[in-house]
Design a protein that fits this description.
The complex is a heterodimer of chains A (116) and B (242). Chain A has helices spanning 2-21, 28-43, 48-59, 61-64, 66-69, 76-81, 83-115. Chain A is an all-alpha fold. The radius of gyration of chain A is 20 Å and the shape is extended. Chain B is mainly α and 242 residues long. Helix content of chain B is 83%, strand content 0%. In chain B, 48% of the residues are buried. The chains are: A mainly alpha (116), B mainly alpha (242).
C-alpha cells in the first residue's frame, strides 16, 4: 500500500509544481490526476498497491470533505437571505440538467446505432 | 486531581475533534447500512448533522474546528489524484461511443451550469452564491479546490454538490421515465455527469454498465470543469470590470 500512497503523493506534487511553474489556473491535484491517467495509459495497467490505496481513499471520500463542509456555519446569513433562489436553482436546475443530458446522450447513441 | 488541566487539554488538543469527526462518520456508516443504504441517510449527511450540532452547542469556531481536523482535509489532494484509477478502468467504454460521450460531456456539462446560474440570476442571488453554484455537478474534492480557485465559498460549494447529488439520485429514475430514455448507458452517463459520486452509486443499481458510464462521466466532467471553469471565470471578471 505504501508504494500506492507514494505514487499518489508524487503525482499530486508534480501536478502542483506544474500548476505553479506555468501559473496555470487548473488546480494542481487535477493536473496530478491527468498525469496519473496518462501514466496508467502508457503503462497499460495499474498495480496492486495503487489499487489498494485508491480503494481505501475513495471508500472514505465523503469523510474527507467534512472539514471544509463544516464552514457552512459561517454562511448561515447568506443562505437564509437567498434561500429560495438557491432552493429553486438546485431542484429545477438538477432535474432539467438530468433530463437534458440523458436525452442528448440517448439521441446521439441511437443516431450512431442507426448509422452503423 | 487536576481537572482544570484536563479541561484545558481536552479543549485544546486536535484529538478531540478528530476523534469526534471520525466517530460521527462511523455512526453515519452504521445508520446508513442499518437503513438499507437509503440515499437520504448517506453517512456524510448523518455525520454532518451530528458534527454541526456538536460545534454549535460547544460554541466552537469554524477556524478552531478546521485546524483540529486539517489532517483529514489534507487527503483531498491525494484523493483527487486517485480518481484517475476508476477513470482509467472505464476508459475502454469511450471507444464504443466516442462522439456521443464527448458531445454530451461538453454540451450537457455547460448546459447544467448555465441553467443553475440563470435561475439564480433571475431570482436575484449574489455573485458569490452564483460562483459557488458553478461547481455543483462535479465530484466534491475537485469542487472544493476549483471553488477556492475561482473565488467562491468552498463550504457553500460542497453543500450544493451534496444536494445536487442527492436530488439526482432520488429523482433520476422518474426523470428518465418521463423523457423516455432508452439506453442504460445514457442514464448512467447523465447520473455521473450531473450527480457525480452519489449519482454513480445510484447507477450501480441500474446496471454495471450504467455505473461504468457514470464513473466515466464523473471523471471526465471533473477534469473538464477544473480546466475550463477558472479560465472562463477569469475572462468574465476582466470583461465585467472593463
Amino acid at each position: 500500500m505504501l508504494k500506492g500512497i507514494i505514487t499518489l503523493l508524487i503525482f499530486q506534487f508534480l501536478g502542483e509544481c506544474i500548476s505553479i511553474v506555468f501559473s496555470l489556473l487548473v488546480p494542481g491535484p487535477v493536473i496530478g490526476m491527468v498525469l496519473l491517467l496518462i501514466f496508467l495509459i502508457i503503462r497499460k495497467s495499474s498495480f496492486k498497491s495503487l489499487d489498494t490505496s485508491v480503494t481505501v481513499l475513495l471508500k472514505y471520500l465523503p469523510l474527507l470533505f467534512i472539514p471544509a463542509a463544516m464552514g457552512i456555519i459561517t454562511q448561515v446569513d447568506l443562505i437564509s437571505r437567498e434561500f429560495w433562489a438557491i432552493f429553486i436553482a438546485l431542484i429545477v436546475g438538477t432535474l432539467v440538467a438530468l433530463a437534458f443530458c440523458a436525452k442528448l446522450m440517448d439521441y446521439l447513441t441511437i443516431r450512431k446505432e442507426n448509422k452503423s | 486531581m487536576n481537572f482544570e488541566a484536563l479541561n484545558d487539554y481536552i479543549s485544546s488538543t486536535p484529538l478531540t475533534w478528530l476523534i469526534l469527526t471520525l466517530l460521527a462518520y462511523k455512526i453515519g456508516i452504521i445508520i446508513y447500512e442499518k437503513c438499507n443504504k437509503h440515499t437520504l441517510l448517506q453517512p456524510v449527511i448523518i455525520s454532518y448533522i451530528i458534527l454541526l450540532s456538536l460545534v454549535f452547542f460547544t460554541n466552537t469556531s469554524f477556524e478552531k474546528y478546521f485546524k483540529s481536523v486539517e489532517i483529514i482535509h489534507f487527503f483531498l489532494g491525494p484523493a483527487t489524484v486517485a480518481l484517475a484509477l476508476p477513470l482509467y478502468n472505464n476508459l475502454k467504454y469511450i471507444r464504443q461511443l466516442f462522439l456521443p460521450i464527448i458531445i454530451t460531456l461538453i454540451v450537457a456539462g455547460i448546459f447544467s451550469v448555465l441553467i443553475a446560474v440563470l435561475l439564480l440570476w433571475v431570482f436575484g442571488a449574489s455573485t458569490v452564491t452564483i460562483l459557488s453554484m458553478t461547481t455543483k455537478s462535479i465530484t466534491a474534492p475537485i469542487a472544493i479546490i476549483t471553488s477556492e480557485q475561482i473565488g467562491a465559498i468552498p463550504s457553500l460549494a460542497i453543500g450544493f454538490v451534496i444536494i445536487t447529488g442527492i436530488i439526482g439520485a432520488l429523482f433520476g429514475s422518474i426523470v428518465f421515465k418521463i423523457v423516455k430514455i432508452k439506453h442504460e448507458t445514457s442514464k448512467g452517463f447523465a447520473l455521473g455527469l450531473v450527480s457525480h459520486g452519489i449519482g454513480t452509486a445510484r447507477a450501480i443499481e441500474i446496471s454495471e454498465k450504467a455505473a461504468a458510464f457514470a464513473a466515466l462521466a464523473m471523471g471526465l466532467s471533473g477534469i473538464f470543469t477544473a480546466v475550463f471553469l477558472p479560465v472562463i471565470i477569469e475572462f468574465l471578471k476582466d470583461f465585467i470590470s472593463f
